[in-house]
């Protein structure tokens, strides 16, 4: 009879030990880890797309790319075409890329380099910023849902609320301070507030503007299949968040997305700007827009505050299910 030896796995202790290093995934890499720790292991079923794409979906090769013409349109028709393209992409994909968006390519590159500079600093410097206190003006951590998600993601993150009350320069790391302030201003010009009425997840925001690097791996899930988002030089990726799907009563969709493991020798860098008030005080109740509901198309979601939604999203973690289900009527 064959005897199988089962190695014990105290997940809670390993998570705690990893978090207490305050150096994240980068710390493991710097230490020369030879294999990925068990806390990062995802079930194989979540990592693959075993079903071949059916013939009726073969035309859905990639998400649309919209030309914003430097945000200055020559005439009403060209602007209308761009708007219609965005509306169609938001309704069918929830994702689209924009080119000629008015943000200089030099600034895009400097922003990505600023992110690299922060993560390449010595562990002693990074540790000063490591925290799970979400009230901090600037926070650096690995996996916001480290202790609630089924498996950790192989990534480190730093985040900062840049508007409406921007942080003082001394609150930001010197390695990326100036470029963060400059990039945030440009990102807000790209999607002014008047236009709003890594594992699979949808964003708990109205809108996300993503600056990717050249290393591919981002995928969008549509009709049960994963579609690669190709690299388009100089483009920004825009995706609809859960809150915009809620207020449009599913007219615009917030699709799940994920980032595959990085097989490159260089770390992948991405910069996401989330347009939401998150956990900050905001008493406004958000529900489906009245003009978009009718007797034939009744509200699909109950009203909620952004803070209530963010609280549920953060507690649930990136477990592969949509936080919108909790607010369905």
From TrEMBL:
Keywords, in A-Z order: Iron, Metal-binding, Oxidoreductase
Domain annotation Fe2OG dioxygenase: ranges: 172-278
Signal peptide start-end: none
Matching InterPro entries: DIOX_N, IPNS-like_FE2OG_OXY, IPNS-like_sf, Oxoglu/Fe-dep_dioxygenase_dom
UniProt-recorded Gene Ontology molecular function terms: dioxygenase activity; metal ion binding
Pfam families in the cross-refs: 2OG-FeII_Oxy (PF03171), DIOX_N (PF14226)
Stretches that traverse the bilayer: none
Family: Belongs to the iron/ascorbate-dependent oxidoreductase family.
PANTHER family: 1-AMINOCYCLOPROPANE-1-CARBOXYLATE OXIDASE HOMOLOG 3, OXIDOREDUCTASE, 2OG-FE II OXYGENASE FAMILY PROTEIN
Record protein name field: Fe2OG dioxygenase domain-containing protein
């Amino acid at each position: 009879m064959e005897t199988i030896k089962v190695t014990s796995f105290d997940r809670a202790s390993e998570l705690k030990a990893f978090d207490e290093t305050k150096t994240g995934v980068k710390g493991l890499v710097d230490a020369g880890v030879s294999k990925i720790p068990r806390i990062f292991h995802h079930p194989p079923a979540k990592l693959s797309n075993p079903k071949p794409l059916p013939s009726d979906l073969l035309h859905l090769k990639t998400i649309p790319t919209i030309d914003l013409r430097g945000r200055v349109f020559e005439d009403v028709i060209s602007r209308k075409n761009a708007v219609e393209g965005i509306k169609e992409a938001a309704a069918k994909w929830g994702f689209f890329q924009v080119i000629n968006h008015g943000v200089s390519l030099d600034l895009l590159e400097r922003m990505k380099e600023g992110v690299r500079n922060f993560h390449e600093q010595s562990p002693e410097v990074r540790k000063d910023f490591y925290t799970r206190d979400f009230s901090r003006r600037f926070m650096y951590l690995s996996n916001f849902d480290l202790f609630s998600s089924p498996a950790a993601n192989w990534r480190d993150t730093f985040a900062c609320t840049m508007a409406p009350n921007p942080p003082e320069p001394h609150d930001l790391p010197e390695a990326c301070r100036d470029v963060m302030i400059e990039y945030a201003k440009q990102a807000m010009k790209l999607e002014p507030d008047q236009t709003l009425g890594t594992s699979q997840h949808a964003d708990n925001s109205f809108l996300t503007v993503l600056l990717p690097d050249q290393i591919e791996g981002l995928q969008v899930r549509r009709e049960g299949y994963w579609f690669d988002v190709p690299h388009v030089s100089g483009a920004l990726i825009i995706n609809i968040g859960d809150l915009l799907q809620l207020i449009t009563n599913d007219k615009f969709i917030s699709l799940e997305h994920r980032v595959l493991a990085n097989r490159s020798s260089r770390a992948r860098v991405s910069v996401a700007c989330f347009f939401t008030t998150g956990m900050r005080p905001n008493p406004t109740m958000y529900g489906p827009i009245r003009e978009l509901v009718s007797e034939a198309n009744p509200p699909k979601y109950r009203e909620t505050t952004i803070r209530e939604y963010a609280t549920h999203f953060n507690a649930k973690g990136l477990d592969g299910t949509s936080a919108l289900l909790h607010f369905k009527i």
